[in-house]
Amino acid sequence: MTGLSVLVLGSGGREHALALALARDPAVAAVHVAPGNPGTWAMTPDRGLTARLAGLDPCNGPAVTALARELGADLTVVGPEAPLVAGVADQLRAGGLACFGPSAAAARLEGSKSFAKQVMAAAGVPTADFRRCDTLDEVAAALDQFGPPHVVKQDGLAAGKGVAVTSDRDEALAHARDRLPVVVEEYLDGPEVSLFAITDGATAVPLPPAQDFKRARDGDQGPNTGGLGAYCPLPWAPAGLVSQTMERVVAPTLAEMARRGTPFAGLLYVGLALTARGLRVVEFNARFGDPETAAILPLLDTGLGTVLLAAATGRLDRLGPLSWKPGFCVTVVVADRGYPDRPLIGGPIREQTPVGLIFHPGDQVHVVHAGTALDAQGGLTAAGGRVLGVVGRGPDLAQARQRAYAAADRIDFPGGRCRRDIAQRAAEGLIPPVERL
Ligand SMILES: Nc1ncnc2c1ncn2[C@@H]1O[C@H](COP(=O)(O)OP(=O)(O)OP(=O)(O)O)[C@@H](O)[C@H]1O
Ligand SMILES: [Mg+2]
């Protein structure tokens, strides 16, 4: 075998992070990202090839299948949720191609909040109590039953804008009004954890837990965003967090999905709240999380292409445990100043940084592109939203943070801003101990 050729679908920071990790796998000979972004285009030596991939719509199953064939891809990794929910993984597999990513039927674990709740109930997985509501009267009754703070979630995919957490009953009702049907649920208190498991539907291997920062402002204030930073691993994680989550959440969920005839193969993202009453699932996603992926994968020592191919072909049981590098990673997202309420488009990003590296990955610090574009002169500009992810690595969280922020501050991007407190409380040892799992 001459080495794997891998196609990654998507164009964000997650896909750039996946591509960087795949490129480090000695078993991988070629990584293609479609449509990709200026960061991934710069990774690939053949500019002509990447320009052609730039036009691809990841939700267009026939176009994706044709591209995977044309590239001779041994594996296609579907990055975002929309193509998974649209059945692109099914179409690739129907064409005889290996794909890392669940079927449309299994991706409903992310695509429908009420479906995920039904599966958790059937599997005995601990999660917030909930009501699915089709009318505003049902919403009002559910809000009063659970009491404040209120949690209202759009049932279907909402690109990070479907959830309201508020103590204002009118605001909760207003959020529900345009989004019916919704799920109203009990409020969960306590630190949140993102735990990813790679699975072929039967065997599952965990990645180290990470934490992301969803709110727009320092101190977890402001509206929810797609995530403005992350760190991995969690120095404060209680012993048994990973094994308990695998036993009480991942294994029963996979068993229930298999029992229904729709096994889940791909990445199961478990969003957890560690409450005073024990761990509870906040949500499932059906793909790698963004921005956690950029903080997790630089620590992976096992070749990522080898792992994802084993999962895609049902051979994860033969792989053995993953190996990890020591140390910590912190990702600081640089977003445009208006994000998330009024995203601004454009604004130059100059590459004058001593980090040397808007494009080039380094060992202690590197940058992933999340929302960048090239202007007519080939200069780097912001395309709005989350623009860059600056990843620092170090022997402890404090040094990883310091490296990430020092690099972020050297990027000349007047239209950008970042939260200043990513991983701060954890680095300072201020997260209270978790009493029980
Ligand atoms: N029951 C709950 N109690 C308290 N907070 C909650 C609850 N459910 C959700 N949240 C908060 O809202 C955030 C978003 O909720 P959820 O993860 O279900 O939505 P999502 O839009 O699918 O998110 P993502 O973009 O991560 O997929 C959570 O990360 C959590 O901070
Ligand atoms: Mg989600």
Describe the SSE topology.
Blueprint: E1 4-10, H1 13-23, E2 28-35, H2 38-43, H3 47-53, H4 61-71, E3 75-78, H5 81-85, H6 88-94, E4 99-100, H7 104-111, H8 113-123, E5 130-133, H9 136-146, E6 150-154, E7 163-166, H10 169-177, E8 182-185, E9 192-199, E10 204-206, E11 211-212, E12 215-217, E13 221-224, E14 229-232, H11 241-259, E15 266-275, E16 278-285, H12 292-296, H13 304-312, E17 328-336, E18 365-369, E19 372-374, E20 380-382, E21 386-394, H14 397-410, E22 416-417, H15 424-427
Helix pairs in contact: 4-6, 7-8, 8-11, 9-10
- Poorly predicted sequence stretches spanning 5 or more consecutive residues: 353-357
Strand content: 25-35%
Number of separate domains: 4
Helix content: 25-40%
CATH superfamily of the largest domain: ATP-grasp fold, B domain
Give an overview of the whole structure.
By secondary structure, the protein is an alpha+beta fold. It folds into four domains: 4-101, Rossmann fold; 129-185, 2-Layer Sandwich (Dna Ligase, domain 1); 190-318, 2-Layer Sandwich (D-amino Acid Aminotransferase, Chain A, domain 1); 328-427, Glycinamide Ribonucleotide Synthetase, Chain A, domain 4. It is 31% helix and 25% strand. The strands form six sheets. Strands 11, 14, 17, 18, 21 and 22 form a six-stranded antiparallel sheet that branches. A hairpin with a 4-residue loop joins strand 9 and strand 10. Helix 4 crosses helix 6, helix 7 crosses helix 8 and helix 8 packs across helix 11. The chain binds adenosine-5'-triphosphate and magnesium ion. Magnesium ion binds at residues 110, 283, 285.
